[in-house]
Task: structure prediction
Amino acid sequence: MNKKNAQTVGTALDQLLKNLGIDRRVHEQKVVLEFEKAMGSEFCKRARAVKIENGVLFLEVINSVWRQELFYQKDSIRQRLNAYFGDYTIKEIIFR
Result:
C-alpha cells in the first residue's frame, strides 16, 4: 500500500464493520455502554440502558413512579441521546 491509498485505522475498522454488516449492531452496543456518559450519573440512578434493537432503546427504571415521569420526558431523552451519539438514531424508547 502506498501513501496515496493510506487510511487511518479508525476508517479501516469502520469500513470493515460495514462490509461485515455489523456496523449497526456495534453502534447499538456503543449506545448501551456509553449511556451513562450521555445521560449523566444522576439520571442513571433511576434508569439504565438494557439493550437496543433496531433503533428501539429499552430502559430499566427503578420504580413505576419514575417510569411514568420518564415516559413524559421520552422525546427530550431521545433527542439528547441522538445529539450525543450523532450518526445513530434512536427511534423509540421503551421503559420497563
